[in-house]
Amino acid sequence: MMSSFPKDKVLKLNKSLYGQADTLRMWYDKLRAVLEARGFTACKADPCLFNSNKVLCIIYVGDCLWFARDSKDIDAFLKSFKEDGDKYNWEMTEG
Predict the structure, then answer these.
(1) 35 by DSSP, 3-state: which?
(2) Which residue from 5, 47, 77, 80 puts its CA 20 to 30 A from 91's CA?
(3) pLDDT score, position 42
(4) Residue 25 in 3-state DSSP?
(5) Nearest 5°: phi and psi at 71?
(6) pTM over 0.70
(7) DSSP label at 24?
(8) What does the alpha-carbon distance between residue 20 and residue 45 come to, in Å, rounded to a whole number?
(9) What average pLDDT does the structure give for the chain?
(10) What is the average per-residue pLDDT within 81-88?
(11) How far is the CA of 14 from the CAs of 55, 92, 93, in angstroms?
């Protein structure tokens, strides 16, 4: 099944983190807080692997891989990212 999430859209962090010594740690901490607020839990063996009842997220450096049995679950999760853009200081942008 094809995802209905636009292929030409990406999430953009509005506040620059680049150039700071712990840029990736700050990004990870922010993303982790958002994932945990949505019911994800980090794997004890690998803190870059997050699991919810329907969606699996793997974080590698500054990228995320999303897996689910039904792509609609990923779409709903990404839609919630867009809706909380102001709260977390990011927005959907053209990719």
Answers:
(1) helix
(2) 47
(3) 95
(4) helix
(5) -60, -20
(6) no
(7) H
(8) 28
(9) 78
(10) 68
(11) 26, 10, 10
